[in-house]
Write a structure and sequence with these properties.
The chain is of the alpha/beta class. It is 43% helix and 15% strand. The longest helix has 28 residues.
Length: 249
């Protein structure tokens, strides 16, 4: 991780859960971290808590469902902090509905955040990395649901959105190879992680089931991010799958 000290990392969805844990550990490792979130006040609180750490956390308001908001955020990063070395596409969303009689507005929200925002943030980060000749790293927070379909009620378009992340990771890797860059791209696919995210996963029965099964902690995923970032420049971890011991899925 030494080579990233003082470098700039953008973390989407940094206000809670996995995103906040990732932002925290990167600041502790000496990076300048830009935390993008709608609930920017939470990121500001975290930044204050980390004021004595080697790095620094900048809170930037961003609505990932709006492309202009993403573009404004990346412009702020370049103008105020510097070029992006690392992008962590952490923000993700699920909504309780179905495919057979579901709410198309809810589907659209999930696809906007899980696919379109990820693609737009990635495009902007890669453009910056190429322009500044940076051997950067793009990390997509995926899911085991992006590799196998689980029998989970009300999952609707969520697994499809995560299968898309799996495909987007490999497609981007191939593009970066063709472009002769040394930018890395990694998909990290956790099993169940105990976060606020579960509040969007179905009704009370679903939440009770999730509360009873083994789960990872946000800090476990942050440790995985540190691992993949800490690999040698010639090593690329394309996919890292993490499950809690005893995972029934």
């Amino acid at each position: 991780m030494d080579r990233w000290e003082g470098k700039i990392a953008v973390v989407t969805g940094a206000s809670s859960g996995i995103g906040a844990a990732i932002a925290k550990v990167l600041v502790q490792k000496g990076l300048k971290v830009i935390g993008l979130a709608r609930r920017v006040g939470r990121v500001e609180e975290l930044a204050a808590d980390l004021a004595d750490q080697p790095g620094e956390l900048f809170a930037v308001a961003c609505d990932l469902t709006k492309e202009e908001s993403i573009l404004e955020a990346f412009k702020w990063v370049i103008d105020s902090v510097g070029p992006v070395h690392i992008l962590i596409n952490n923000a993700g969303l699920t909504k309780a509905t179905s495919l057979s009689d579901g709410d198309s507005a809810l589907w659209r929200q999930v696809l906007e955040v899980n696919i379109m925002a990820l693609c737009i943030c990635t495009r902007e980060a890669v453009k910056i990395m190429k322009e500044h000749d940076i051997d950067g790293h793009i990390i997509h927070l995926n899911s085991i649901a992006g590799h196998q379909i689980q029998n989970v009620p009300d999952f609707n378009v969520y697994p499809a959105s995560k299968f898309a992340v799996t495909a987007l990771t490999e497609t981007l890797r191939q593009e970066l190879v063709r472009d002769k860059t040394r930018i890395k791209v990694t998909s990290i696919s956790p099993g169940v992680v105990r976060t606020e995210f579960q509040e969007g996963m179905g009704g009370d029965d679903m939440k009770e089931m999730l509360a009873q099964i083994p789960a990872l902690k946000p800090k476990n995923i942050a440790q995985a991010v540190v691992y993949v970032l800490g690999t040698d420049p010639d090593v690329q971890v394309s996919e890292l799958t993490i499950r809690p011991v005893g995972d029934p899925f």
